[in-house]
């Protein structure tokens, strides 16, 4: 079907041209041919309407062609020819459940490989490379010790103290009914040495240090400082990750020990001042309840938590995309992954200590 284009093709005449094409091909049209023999001028909006006619023809699966252009009109049509000849886009097929699961599985596998590579490189640059004379950033390590350890003591002590107070408060409400208030000391001691101090300290450190690590490395990635380090031939795990890993491996058990003391202090405050138990009796009951194996469990967990917090923070920081929003998203993702990993690791240790070793 041939459609004659007007002498001047602008916004108004171009809109009418599209309407005419739709009207004439609505019943039995199989093709559209634009005739530019009478057209003397085309502006940008008129050219956009010509492309709209071509898009309409592709949408309705009609043949589209043009003829008769000359002079400046021919030059303009040649300029927009790629838009007129564009192939119709295929409709995107909806993803099935299997496709989504497969894509998610591939993404998880690739990310797990990246994390495993980062872990191996970090352990090498932390525990092996310094003894081979390949250098270690001791100055940054000292700064990280202060930032991760010293500056976290107060918040860690307060959080564990309040948790110990809460645990004693809740357990006392049940045990006092049977006249067993003194056994609150046993419960607090066992709970904090085995589980609570290590987990609470890890959560505090993940929210404080893990988020800071992710934000620091993500900002460096966005500002292309990571690429600059690689361009200078420096190893990112050696330069940025190893000092953080060694620092947290040292301070995490120390903070966990402080958390144990704080939790026991919180429980004792409730036992002495509310339950009116003699301080000497409370301390003796706590001493009788403590077992070296329980303390060692908490310390071993703290080491595993330290490795996971640094690894997840560095991993998310190094794979950030976008600008400031990407930094925020990766920081949030790092904290969420930290807490999830802490719970999973604690579950695996519980399985190991209570069902395998025993």
Protein described:
By secondary structure, the protein is mainly alpha-helical. The protein has two domains: 2-84, Transcription Regulator spoIIAA; 102-356, no CATH class. Helix content is 74%, strand content 5%. It contains 13 helices and five strands. Helix 1 packs parallel to helix 2 (44-59) and helix 8 runs antiparallel to helix 13 (324-356). The longest helix is centred in the middle third of the chain and has 39 residues, at 184-222.
Q: Which terms would index this structure?
A:
5 strands; mainly alpha; 3-stranded parallel β-sheet; 2 domains; Transcription Regulator spoIIAA; 74% helix; 358 residues; two-stranded parallel sheet; single chain
Give a short overview.
Helix content is 74%, strand content 5%.
